[in-house]
Specification:
Layout lengths: L1 H11 L11 H4 L1 H11 L3 E7 L2 E9 L5 E6 L22 H8 L4 E5 L25 H18 L3 E7 L1 H10 L5 E7 L5 H8 L14 H4 L4 E6 L7 H11 L7 E4 L8 H11 L3
Helix pairs in contact: 4-10
């Protein structure tokens, strides 16, 4: 029973939002992402870094001091309540939608291992969208890809934005770099152990814990957004993380009214960026 509940909760993280996100049902997930990226002026590039080939979209308009890096969530990790997906490519790529409305000059989006594979089939083991989604080799790959994107854009500094599980990746990446000037997470799973306890499920074996990196990133200016109507990653997850950093008053957290886990963020994002303070 516990194993089935675990699968159900992980499936909830990847349930698509219908409406504008219903297009993947007949267009194909890659086509939808290409359409979002194309309208925003992004170009696609696959980057081989470490053990993985990561799909990226990029838009470099002019030489500036920094590059904004968006990291996607866990995607469609589960096909159903009880079956691991054969392809974790998201039906609703929330992080890409956020990147598309960001007015910054230099932006790159990075998908997670197994997502948007050029062959149409994931090129890594399923454990990398299940228990090992935050594994050492995953973080190394992201760091390598960011190095290449930073060099290509001629930027000196990196601004990290992670959605859902991508928030955990952003924290773990930031802890290993000295060029990150800001860190933002959106509905971020920043305390996986607390998340699993809350949902009464087993822990993510094979993954590193962003809570262990909290002190290392505490010096970085940051903002963590939580949806007021998000039952999947509730606001206390962000509070647990910033508390570990030493922010006992939770000043680094912004609760966004009316937003769920995967619905409402793109519409609010440009405004949140405009008023965001660290």
């Amino acid at each position: 029973m516990k194993k089935n509940i675990h699968k159900f909760i992980l499936w909830l993280l990847t349930v698509p939002v219908l409406g504008c996100a219903s297009m993947p049902l007949f267009m194909g997930r890659s086509s939808v992402a290409d359409d979002i990226a194309g309208k925003a002026g992004f170009t696609k590039e696959y980057i081989k870094a470490g053990d993985f080939t990561l799909m990226t979209y990029q838009r470099f308009n002019r030489s500036t001091d920094s590059i904004s890096i968006y990291i996607e969530g866990d995607g469609r990790a589960w096909e159903s309540k009880y079956r691991l997906s054969d392809d974790p490519t998201p039906l609703n790529p929330v992080a890409l939608r956020l990147a598309a409305v960001d007015p910054a000059d230099n932006i790159a989006y990075i998908a997670r291992p197994g997502q948007y594979s050029p062959s149409g089939m994931p090129d890594c083991a399923p454990k990398y969208w299940s228990g090992s989604r935050f594994a050492e080799e995953v973080i190394n790959s992201f760091n390598g890809a960011i190095d290449l994107l930073k060099e290509k854009s001629q930027a000196q500094h990196v601004e990290l934005i992670g959605y859902s599980g991508g928030g955990a990746i952003a924290v773990l990446v930031a802890a290993r770099r000295n060029d990150v000037t800001s860190l933002r997470t959106v509905a971020g799973d920043l305390d996986p152990k607390a998340f699993c306890r809350y949902h009464h499920v087993s822990q993510l074996d094979g993954s590193m814990d962003p809570m262990d990196a909290a002190q290392a990133v505490s010096r970085i200016p940051q903002r963590h957004y939580a949806g007021s109507k998000d039952p999947v990653v509730p606001g206390f997850i962000a509070r647990s993380f910033v508390g570990q950093e030493g922010d006992k008053d939770y000043r680094r957290i912004t609760i966004v009214e009316g937003v769920t886990h995967n619905k409402g963020w793109p519409k609010r994002w440009k405004g949140l960026l405009a008023i965001s303070s660290f």
